[in-house]
Amino acid sequence: MSAPVRVLLVDDQHLVRTGFRVILEIEDDIEVVGEAADGQRAVSMATALRPDVVLMDVEMPVLDGLEATRRITGDATPGGPAVLILTTFDRDDYLFAALRAGASGFLLKNGTPEDLIEAVRVVARGEGLIAPALTRRVISTFARPGAVPPDPRYDAATADLTPREREVLELVARGASNAEIADVLRVGEATVKTHVSRVLAKLGLRDRVQAVVFAYEHGVVRPGG
Question: 5-141 has which fold?
Answer without folding.
Answer: Rossmann fold (3.40.50)
